[in-house]
Design a protein that fits this description.
By secondary structure, the protein is mainly α. It has a domain at 24-175 and 403-452. Helix content is 71%, strand content 6%. The strands form 3 sheets. A two-stranded antiparallel ribbon has the order 1-2. Helix 8 runs antiparallel to helix 14 (366-383).
Length: 452
Amino acid sequence: MDDPAFWHRLQFAFTITYHYLFPQLTMGLAPFLVWWRWKALRGGGERYAEAARFWGRIFGINFAVGVVTGIPMEFQFGTNWSEFSKHSGGVIGQTLAMEGMFAFFMESAFVGAMVWGERRLGPTKHFIATALTGLGSWLSAYFILVTNAFMQHPVGHAVTPEGNLVIADFAAYLLNPWAFVLFAHNQMAAIVTGAFVVAAVGAYYALRGEHAEQARLYIEWGAGIGLAAAVLVAFPTGDVQAKFVARYQEVSLAAMEGRFESGTEAQLNIIGQPNVKMRRLDNAIALPGMLSFLAFGTFHSNVRGLGAFPQDEWPTNIELLYYSFHIMAGLGTLFIGLMALVNLQRFRGRLMTTPLLLWALMLSFPFPFIANTAGWMTAELGRQPWLIFGLFRTAAGYSDAVSQGDALFTLIGFAGLYAAVGLLYLFMVGREVLHGPAHAEGASLYTEVIRG
């Protein structure tokens, strides 16, 4: 591969994809922890405190590994993407700094108190520490997603005489409508991940006949919240984001759907293989008119195909973009179906006597991670060939001083290091799961205080 940008892109794609495996789970677990701590504080019983205690330890492990894997990305802005940083650092540097100074410091300051400070702090202060930890994780996501939203839909900026970007309207930048939609969609997807993991552990304990009360609690809340979040990922958050893409990134929508020709009553492609060379979608199974309706609100709306745009503005990997989008959408649909079935059997009182469904629930936990990864690949591949859509091309953003060999060598190093970190992570989380939600030193603290 003679394109220097390819290796820089591949390295950043690898590090950020690996890193995001961990924050999505911490963000997804945060609402569970806050709710369970609140229920325990309000007299809901020791079982809620025990659940929060167990999942708080999992949260802490995820947070630590997320920090370790996230730090290299900050350096890559200077080492691999210095031209991009020089050009747009006056804008994106603001929210990245705010994320570090406000949100990350809040989360990191209180996570230790949440994991280890239960007895010392007491129920009320410990609940506050848990709430602030969760708030920090979600606030961190917002600042980072504002940065990404600017790259997708740049607003609130100006261009200096030297050609660099600066903030002209901070409120417009911070309150970018794309950021609101992206944040809502992303956080619902993170909750799906957290819910599936919680429910999967509950199913594991149920199948083993261990920790019966906790198993039921995990399945009950994981399946209930998981169904609600999976529906919200699709509608309205996913629907609104798709409409934003249709309005502001028409070429991306065309590539996501493998659409090469323009026209009304555009079909929604369920499956097919994009043939870029021949400019067609092979073996398509489609719903007539549905793309026009979903994108613009009427079946007779015109949806432009890739042929309506200059080829140098097409996404650089249409095939991968197409498959990423359809994997995300397909898995999201399956999530709704599985969680609906689990909840139906739960309400009928038959879930615990349906081993096949418990096995499906237990084995399903990796798929939200895959769906989230495919979703982010869709967003980032769809933006290409731009780093900042319509303003700054990817080919102009990488560092000339870092050779292709340097980028490949450090990529191999990251792969080896992250493999070791991943094995350590699996060992630590596996040990917690095998140990189970055992009563810790302060297990009866909530009950004692409430009764007292």
